[in-house]
């Protein structure tokens, strides 16, 4: 209580004092660029995914434009030790996401390498994914996929590193005949999601959909 009085939580955009569980005030929330994508139909995220791997459905909640509010919110979640922002973002989804009969069987978030997770102290996607699991009644599995290398695959350039990047992720157990929703914070190149998707699709009968908090330009 004393810390809240001395260091009140402030809106990331306008600096107004707000509730401790929020990231932006109501006025600034109204300025967030939500995509209004249809999970069951076609959208630009699905088109971008299809260039990399077979995807059944795709959904991004927000646009990740330069200097906009969504970028500030996601960066606060990832780099400022505010894991509970993930739960807050998940709470926005029921207003914008309806699976319309295409509900996945399992939620799977992109894993961090164990070393990276120890350094950060948490995986920014876990609280978010668990909250979505509760909201939609879909089980989540944080252990299905493991990251095998600490280095960032997208930054690796030479042949040896490209070969290593192909094995960045692996399944920890066999899974078949499931519709799996892959979850990440931001879709940029899509390389990370593609690598994981191909691992899942290598098992018989699986289909993959994608959900991200935000999609980069």
Chart the SSEs and their pairings:
Blueprint: H1 2-6, H2 26-29, H3 44-50, E1 58-64, H4 69-79, H5 84-90, H6 93-96, E2 106-109, H7 114-120, H8 126-136, E3 145-147, H9 159-165, E4 169-171, E5 179-187, H10 191-201, E6 207-216
Parallel strand pairs: 1-6, 2-5, 5-6
Antiparallel strand pairs: 3-4
Main features:
217 residues; alpha/beta; Rossmann fold; 2 domains; four-stranded parallel beta sheet; two-stranded antiparallel sheet; 10 helices; 34% helix; globular
Beta-strand share of residues: 15-25%
Count of the separate structural domains: 2
The description of the largest β-sheet is: 4 strands, parallel
- Look at the helices and sheets and give the structural class: alpha/beta
CATH topology of the largest domain: Rossmann fold
What is the H-and-E element order?
Answer: HHHEHHHEHHEHEEHE
Give a written overview of the molecule:
With 217 residues, this protein is of the alpha/beta class. The protein has two domains: 31 residues, no CATH class; 185 residues, Rossmann fold (3-Layer(aba) Sandwich). It is built from ten helices and six strands; from the N terminus they run αααβαααβααβαββαβ. The strands form two sheets. Strands 1-6-5-2 form a four-stranded parallel sheet, sandwiched between helices. The chain has a two-stranded antiparallel ribbon with strand order 3-4. Helix 10 links the parallel strand 5 and strand 6. It is globular and about 50 Å long. The termini are far apart. About 2% of the residues have low confidence.
